[in-house]
Amino acid sequence: xxxxxxxxxxxxxxxxxxxxxxxxxxxxxxxxxxxxxxxxxxxxxxxxxxxxxxxxxxxxxxxxxxxxxxxxxxxxxxxxxxxxxxxxxxxxxxxxxxxxxxxxxxxxxxxxxxxxxxxxxxxxxxxxxxxxxx
Length: 134
Prior knowledge:
Largest sheet: none
Number of helices: 5
Number of strands: 0
């Protein structure tokens, strides 16, 4: 009985460790390993516009596949990483980047979480102050 449980746990852990969550299909992969590595690194930094919480490297949405192919075609054309990122942000906006640059138009993206933390602390402080009076 205990051996069966250990075996089930072993299979579960091996599935977690060995399962590859990447959705790059074999027909997308570039022949040059250096170019493929560049494409994968860029794809890991680009947000899937359908899934929004995944990179296009992990997503199996049709739009993610199109973007992966577009990135690989630009790499084949000799464009550098910055040119590819610029092309994508010009086309889709800064939201497509999983880590948007710190610029004036992305200031809200960077400061809004801090604002919510400060407001949350303020609310907790006021609530605590009111509860002590009772």
